[in-house]
Amino acid sequence: MPVYQYVVLNGKQPEEIIEVEQKAYDAPLYEHPVTKEPIKRVPASPSLSLNHSTTSEKNSLSEENLDKHGFSLYHKDNSDGSYRKQGGAGPDSIHP
Question: Of 20, 49, 65, 69, whose CB neighbour count within 10 A is largest?
Fold first, then answer.
C-alpha cells in the first residue's frame, strides 16, 4: 500500500508532516487521525526500492555469481565470430 504525506494545518512552524498508509483508490484525508486537526495531502516523490544500480548489476553479472547460479558466461571473439567461455559449466566455445 502506498504511503502518503500530509501536512498538519495548525499554523505552527516548523510544519508537522505525517505519513499515512492508504490504498491507492482511497480518498485523501482531511482530518488528522489522532488529533482531529485539519490536514492536507502534499505531493511527494515515490519511494521506490529498485535493485538496479551499477554496483548491483556488476555483482549479479560477475563470473562467480553466474557460475554459482548455474549460468555460463561467454565473450565474443571478434576475429572469428565464435564465443569463448569465461566461466560456468558449458562448452569451452560456441561457433555459430
Answer: 20
Continuous H helices in the chain: 54-60, 63-68
The reply to whether 38 and 58 lie within a common domain is no
pTM above 0.90, yes or no: no
Provide the number of structural domains found in the chain.
2
Mean pLDDT of 19-47: 91
Q: Which three cell numbers stand for residue 92?
A: 569451452
> What is the residue whose three cell numbers read 498508509?
21
pLDDT recorded at residue 2: 86
What is the model's pLDDT at position 45?
79
The answer to whether residues 8 and 32 belong to one domain is yes
Q: What share of the chain is helix, strand, coil (3-state, %, to 5)?
A: 15, 30, 55
